[in-house]
Write a structure and sequence with these properties.
mainly alpha
Length: 116
């Protein structure tokens, strides 16, 4: 999900021949781009002034949670490394990253539905 920028794929195409990329549910980038478009709303800016603080609050909350958890995850990973358990240390970090991505996707999708 993190490496998927859209449906066009990773090909080298001359700009005049390139197809316009489009939204993909499987792309972290596109999910956040869609949320940003929904936060912006129409040209009057009335939606933005109401929606942006709500989105910022939701993501601030997630970021604080991750920062608090990060200390414990890093400590566990360092301890595993000191014991020579490099694979376990990598898995610890991978699992934490995966959990953070999943939580961000749940949050962004919830907000995308709220702002239809």
């Amino acid at each position: 999900m993190l490496s998927t920028a859209g449906q066009t794929g990773k090909t080298v195409t001359a700009p005049p021949l390139a197809k316009r990329d489009k939204f993909s549910e499987d792309s972290y980038w596109w999910l956040f781009r869609d949320l940003l478009d929904k936060i912006k709303g129409d040209a009057t800016g009335t939606e933005f002034s109401k929606r942006q603080p709500m989105a910022r609050t939701a993501f601030d909350r997630l970021e604080r949670k991750w920062m608090d958890q990060c200390k414990q995850v890093e400590q566990r990973s360092v301890e595993q490394m000191k014991l020579g358990k490099t694979v376990d240390a990598s898995r610890t970090l991978d699992a934490f990253t995966k959990k953070c991505v999943e939580e961000a996707v749940v949050t962004v999708n919830r907000m995308r539905k709220d702002y239809l």
